[in-house]
Amino acid sequence: MTDPYLCPNCKTNRSRFNLIQQVVTPVKIDAKNGDIVEQYENNDAGPLHMPYRGPELRVQCATCGLIEEERMFIKRAQQQQ
Hints:
By secondary structure, the protein is of the alpha+beta class. The chain has one helix at about 70-80, and strands spanning about 15-20, 25-30, 35-40, 55-60, 65-70.
């Protein structure tokens, strides 16, 4: 995080944010009861299990509560310069 942020929702917050690290755990669950049957390591889940392709980091505005990808907060700050 080396870029300034500006909340795209409330448009006033430039300094108070929660950084949310997304940790992916690939699992196989029982379809009937929801119990975890198997937990996979890294990308060893097999060909039928699509790997996670989402952002590693999300940002929450600590003023209004909006949660978005980091790029949204950076772009809003760049537009206001």
